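== Protein entry: sequence and backbone fold ==
=== Local backbone shapes as whole numbers ===
==== Amino acids and backbone structure tokens ====
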Amino acid sequence: MSYSFLIEIILILIPLYVANSSAMLFAGKTQMDFNLNFFDEKPLFGKGKSIKGTFFGVISGIISVLILDFYFQGNVPIIPQYVFYGILLSFGAIMGDVAASFVKRRFDITTGKPILLLDQLDFVVGVILFGSLIYSVSAEMFLLICFITLIAHKASNFLAFKLKIKKVPW
């Protein structure tokens, strides 16, 4: 594994994880769907998706990108237009999570109940889709991001549970 490969993965993972975890940490009371139901009479997204969490998730991801860009003095290696790419990553992380919530509500899966791989990788898929508008990662990079995320997701959720930030360890 080359040095540039490691830098590339770090430059992708930091805004991905910062945006996703910040949405949970800054969760608010006003739901994104304003308690509205979809055509199927089921909640649009559910109680876990708040306007405040969504806003601060995206903003925190963007701030992490700006810090990285500053660190690299505006010349981020490997990834061209990194600030714009990072903004797409931040939105993608949050929108991937929101999309998974929408799918879970369609199948009557209650908020907080886990679905293997969907809950761990929803934000990764959002990042790859949004980010691909200006920069595509290799299949090897995508698989490595998924692998790292599966481990990091399990560990961070368990830690958040132990710190009483989350009610469940998943």
User: Anything to note?
Assistant: The chain is about 65% helix and 0% strand. The mean pLDDT is 92.
